[in-house]
## 1
Amino acid sequence: MATAVVTEGLTKDFRAGFWRSRPHRALDGLSLEIPTGGVFGLLGPNGAGKSTTLKILINLLWPSAGRAQVLGRPPGDVDARRRLGFLPEHPTFYDHLTAEELLTYFAGLFGYSPADRRARASRFLDLVGIGADRRRLLRHYSKGMVQRVGIAQALINDPELVILDEPMSGLDPIGRRDVRDLILKLRDEGRTVLFSSHILSDAELLCSRVAILAKGRLVASGALSDLTAAQPGSGDGWEVVAINVPPEVADRLTARVRRATCIAPGRYTFELAPEVRPETLVTDLASAGASVVSLTPVRTTLEDVFMERITR
Amino acid sequence: MMLRRIGLVAWHVFKESVRDRVLYAIGAFAMLLVTAAVVFSQLTAGQDLKIMKDFGLATIELAGVLMAVFIGVGLVAREIERRSIFSLLAKPLPRWEFVVGKYLGLVLTLTVNVLAMSLALYAALAYQHWVAPLGVRASWPAPASDPRLMIAVLMIALELALLTAVALFFSTFSSSTLISVVFTVGIFIAGLLSADLRAFNDVVDAPVLGYLVVGVGWLVPAFSAFDVKNQVVYGLPLAPGFVLHTIAYTVAYAAAAVGAAVIALRSREFK
Amino acid sequence: MTGAKPTAFGILAVVGGLALSASLLYARDHRYPPPPVTQRMLYVTSGSVVGRVMLTFDALAADVYWIRTIQHYGRDRKSRLQSGRFELLEPLLDLTTSLDPMFMTAYRFGAIFLSMAPPEGPGKPEAAVALLEKGLRATPDRWQYAHDIGFVHYWQTGDFTKAADWFERAARMPKAPSWIGPLAATTRAQGGNRVGARQMLQELLTSPEAYIRQAAERGLLQLQALDAIDFLQAAVDEYFRRHGQYPANWSDLVRAGLIPALPLDPSRVPFVYDATTHHVKLGPGSPLAPLPQGFQR
């Protein structure tokens, strides 16, 4: 099956308080297609509707309008649930259990044999780096450790589709790197990963496709490379910073470059289009007596795309 | 398969109660009261065996009621509040199995606790038997370690199973623990008075109000129907049919309450 | 699959469970009614023990016992028990008044119903008097208690001397109504009479307790029946004076124009005329029987 998740016009209204008649629209007509395989990022600021979308897919919430399909089935279908894994936002589990007990419990719900349950618990706890602490009570775990356990429980059934709601939240930089590596590993194993995040830079490193939400609406979706390439205005290219640039040289060069900015007397930033090789400019500057301070490749970031789409 | 999942949920409820220190406090409280019964009965000559049996059974019942209410109203509500239910419901566990599993788990917990306290009571009664002179023993209407006490204990267990079902129902749709406790206790008291409510028309002549009250008396779970303490303590006979009917009643009503809880949970969204 | 709507199975389980459980309970209580002995055990009969156990909720406990008193009275009144009727009335009233010594209605209830002869009551006038004396110990100025002791003697024991003593005591208490003094005097002079009886019953009609009001109404009807019997007896005697022989039946009296029609007592049961003794009596099955004795005009 080529599509892991499909939504059509998905809308969710929440009643804001008992007395107010006008509901709060958390999701407005979201239509998405998430193909199998690869990492899909559901992005947007807080309150954009990301968690709401994921919860509808898991059948924790019901749409006010529109439909969704997960692995070809309606949300909440038991067969679909067998083949997916879910990590909720800010997960909490059972304080009185150890990590190992929690995982064997959840594994048991899938119907694995007792030996298989223990094997899986071990394997996934090792995978997320909790191996040594598996027999300690969850009550004593740090936030980062709980997050890791959460990922482990989401994988316990070797799911085809892994849905992670803000998987990096609460993690330190090491933890975030581990999670990123894990997500890439899952992708390499052929699974589909759908995760939500408000940190766009994480998505850039991981996702092949993204959808950006703002205030419940879809503002951008597609392959990451397409989105950043299609961004008008800024684009890939080069940025050269030079000092001791004589003014007449600066004027001459301004015509050849996309943009030249004077930061201080004699200090200029030149932005070059990606087709233009920077070596020519550098040589020219050098022969004009200027010094190149830095030469940096410039790429359009997702953030650029996002900010542009939001303000549109 | 479904039984295995239900069993897993139930087992984990039991496990949590074992690891939860609050339960030990209630258990200790019960043991203390049984000890007090021993002391207390030394002060009242002649009636001590009856008093100990009555007091012991009442203590077991009271401890059980406290556990059933306070743990029962949190069974589902706490999972929802802590959001641990999110990852659980993403697993292939139907919501109805979750509710039934939680119910059976608490019933198991209460049964184990009640049995433990009964053993303590039997021990205390055996001690009474041991220290009593032969003449006094002959005057007892029923033996000290009377196995028929277990019928009263069975009735208490059935009563708790019914009360747990009611508490569970409130747990599934009310998010306020306080409200759930108040309603559960209210229904419990109404149930204790249900025999009087059903006999309302015998005592008072009020046409419309009478039928309303009698109706409530039939609808409310009849917690007064489990009281066989008098029969057992006095050694009076208890027909097996009576016990069987009571068991069937408990199963039927608890099924209704658990069914209502399932309906309530299935219509809940989780924000 | 979870949806917002409850399934048919779910609704069936709930409704069916409730219906099934109710019918099981009904069946059980019918096939295995609890033995009457155990129904009627009062585990604690000492008010002071209950008071201590109830901590500061004495008044509440008194209310609960009061409710049980009324229920016990009501249930036994409707039941067809032959022996042991109202046997818990005395201990229940004792408990109620021990827990709340100022519970006037309980004392007055006991005055009337404890002293009533079977099958209307347990027939324990001495218990009623003891209860009222307990009330006087708690509140010595309650004229109603003294009056009620007189009432018990007036209506049940027939000891009009004691009745007069107590009426006099009541008359001396604060807030006693003005008719008690004369009542004491006439009781001492003539014994029981209907005027005094009527006065007492009128006073009881103002009680907040329904059963007491019912008893007072019944008493008034009984007095009316006594008046009617006097009138009918006078008619019989008049017939004898006019015709030299006693009438054979009511029709004779009607034809003689001495009574307008076949006489019915206030509960609409016909009076009976006994042709052999020439006496008028209440009809059999009249709810006003037995009529109180000792009440001359």
Note: The radius of gyration of chain A is 24 Å.
## 2
Amino acid sequence: MDWFSFLVGNVLSYVAIVVFFVGVPLQIYRWMRAPVVYPLTDFPAPKTAEGAFIKVLLDTFLFRPILLKIYDATVYTGKWTDLWLGGWIFHVSLALIIIGHIVGIGTLGHQFTILGVSPETSLHMSEFLGTVSGIFLSLSLIYLFLRRFFNPLVRVMSDGIDYLIVLLILGISCMGNFMRFSSTYGVEYDVAQRWIIGLFTLHPVALPDNPIFTWHLFLVEILLIYFPFSKLMHSCGIFFARWMITNYDPKKVMVFDWRSKVCEWKGGK
Amino acid sequence: MNFDRNVEKGRFPQRWWEDERLKTVQTMDKGEKHLVPFLAPKIYPLEPLDKPFDETELEQRFVSAFARVLAQHRQLKVYMESCVKCGACVNACHTYQGTGELRNIPVMRADLLRRYYKKYFTTQGAILGPIVGAERVTLEGLKEMYYYFYQCSQCRRCSYYCPMGIDTAEITRYGREILIQCGFVSQFHWSVLTSMWKTGNHMVITKPGLMDTVEFLEEELKEETGVDIKIPVDDWDAELLYNPSSADFFAYPDTMMGVAKVMHAAGIRWTISSDIIETGNFGLFLHENTMRMLNKRLIDQTFKMKNCAEVVLGECAHGWRTWKMMTKTVNGEWVDKRFHYVHLVHKLIELIDNGIIKVDPSRYEGMRVTLHDSCNNARAGGLIEEPRYVLSKILPEGSFIEMTPNREMNWCCGGGTGILWDDPESINLRVKLSRNKAEQYKAVNPDIAVVICSIGKAHNTFIVHDGYKDELDHVKIKGLVDLVGDAIVDFPFPKNKYAKS
């Protein structure tokens, strides 16, 4: 076991977990400490909190604000229809991959036996899904990177770090894909599971002797450590921001229901 | 711009002073749990600075003001950290599309503040510096920030485009509030704020001036209708308090006369209070404490009234937003239990629907009427279908035409947040800012454009009679109540007001 593998497998992994799982709630707590002084509703707004909740979920998970604007975006500039597809595919495949890592490593790829298929089929399905979403992840990231670079307006508004984050995730996903396809550098589920169990039971085991895997893990740890301090916090901020402009709390505003008031006032005050 | 001239001479418009009246506003509100914990103690501008602050002091002032605003407003913190720079807002902003300046893209504009946020309030900015776009406060940077933050009309259109739901209007609002602490404020906005503190309206109208104007308007009404229509001032036995925009007395007297006609025809005993003849509230745009002060001032008037059960707010869009969305949280939850606070449009619906005033739609036969949804009415105040309902009652079939896009996606006219500077350079800028609106007008080619907003009336008048007068000079800008007042069957129709030029 060389020093780098030790650093990544047994030191940085703890640092990353602590920073991520403490840092993100702390950032959210920092936001929560400040009050929202008055409602910021964008009208027309759902009348009830349930309606607002559903709208926030739809807006968040379908990227509806950009999806609905595709038409008039095309009218005005003719070249802005590109964002929704790239962004949405990226986020969906990323979510699938994160879920796949947790479930796949947790059940050794047998997660689909719950649907009644045999363990081998489940393993194949798991590998197939992982491969497909991995490819989509890399492709969409390349696409987003090129868009950021070649679209003059987006390029102007980007800082160095915006490229670096895309490259970081691209590096992670490319190494993951490489391990899928390569027979020499592939990592089996049980090896990864053993390492993770060791990590969480505080009896860390050595990483498998596989430089690609070590680098893959290293970049993930960098990402996790950087996460709470970066614009990646938009994954939490989006719910706050969307809720603020969607929620319409009748207790906080002067409500005037004009149709019912018209009837009520008919007989004078 | 006003600003450039001041900067060239090394002279900044203002300095704020500790003001006793601000203290009373604060102590008055202590103990309200929904209130902001505390607000700017020293803002009230009294004297111009001889020279700008040196950079050390500027930095201190900026950072302390920024920290205070951040501690009080969750939205600002979330907006500062959540932007991913996807570029979806490029299509949203009429300011960018009109001027073509990159800094007018909402994300770039917000970045003018975000770069300082990153520098002083985040770990990554302190460590990585320029890689993440963090910058130190400099005089040049603040000038740039001032220049572009005062071009934002806070129309909130970008919040409909942003996948995160970031509302750049909030960022520019608090950005301006921070800039005030550093000695930057536009002369126009500052004079309006000062005037609000002194007289309770934007135009420095004192009570004698008001009485004189009212008398003049009454004579006009007599001439027009042949009926003695009164505009009562400070009649504390009245049952309805109407709160006009101060511009209605000078720039758009038709609106005030329309209200008088409607109230006369409905037989309502109404009044206006000389202490506050302003629905609008410039505090919303750049200074939160002023916003609360003026809001409080109108609430105070209602205590003078003996039988008053209703306060009707005049045609002002951002005033309506302030009233509807902010009164209860900045001035206490009890306010709506004591009175009805309604918009004039709601009152008109009530009067027309119940047959209290009779209108004659045939008077507007052959006119093409369109409605400009003011940003703060439609997007921020939810007043979308109500004006259309009133128009459907007073206009004949087929007279009303919609602009595209309309309702909450309507283009801002470009005058939002009182961008009504009238020096020669700013006029060129205003023409650019209103390009999208002018194109909308050209597309529908109306005879009358209904604008339920005082700033909107001022700026739309500028668009049609000044900025784009070659194509649009025949368009008349009217308030909604102007049309209702002229449609009332009790009075003759003033044909000359609608004659095609």
Note: Residues 119-150 of chain A form the longest helix (32 residues).
